Amino acid sequence: MATPSTSQPKAKKPKKVKDYKTSVSAFLIIVICLIVAHAFFYLICGADANFDEKGHPINGNIFGTLYQGGFVIPMVITLLLTVIALGVERFIALNKASGKGNITKFVVNAKAKLSAGDIDGAEELCNKQKGSVANILKSGLVRYRDVAALTELNNDAKAAMIEKEIEDATALELPYLEQNLNIVATISSLGTLFGLLGTVLGMIRSFAAMANEGAPDSTALSLGISEALMNTAAGIATGALAIIIYNFFASKVQDITNAVGEVGFAIGQTYSKK
Hints:
Layout: H1 26-45, H2 62-67, H3 72-97, H4 103-115, H5 119-129, H6 131-148, H7 155-177, H8 181-210, H9 218-272
Helix pairs in contact: 1-3, 3-8, 3-9, 4-5, 4-9, 5-6, 6-7, 6-9, 7-9, 8-9
């Protein structure tokens, strides 16, 4: 006669906090930045007021000088605006994901509640804090109550089940925390590469001007050099800003992940110590 298998209760997932789960599509941000960059380049930088009667940029006019950078410049500006927009989006999203109040203080208080066996107190802290760490801890607390009824399991097995629940909840939260960071990381390389492309095109124009028979075309030569330098500057600035923004938010995500690891270990230890 077959022995009925003991089914393990499934923990109910706490409802996600919808207000910080809403994020703007990266594709939409890129399209908007593309339109803004081209409008800025052709309508503002390319305005007649920025050039003299010979078509040269007025001395000291940055818009006219930028316009001399050629068609690669609006692409680099698109990348620059995208990095800034995604940086603002991640700043807002990660601030909301961190919840209310200081996340380090929350972790310390939660660990103290768990060490004292005050599960209700820890859950109350989660309800006040909200955010990713609180959501993950709350998932573990729900599982904690479920496994308490499983008398046939030893404490180590119960602790393992709770830690598995924490890992599953973390796997659900982590993609949101890292959203769009891969695009910023890609732009850190693309910005420099587009700047290099503009530099090469500008140098080609400069050497073509010098290759003319007789006196070199000084206007074409200066335009080529201007195109090369403007693209170099814009590409380096975009790549550098993207690296800074990526590293800043990657460290923020790492802080949240470390906090999750601490509370996950603490809740598992409440059973291991029994």
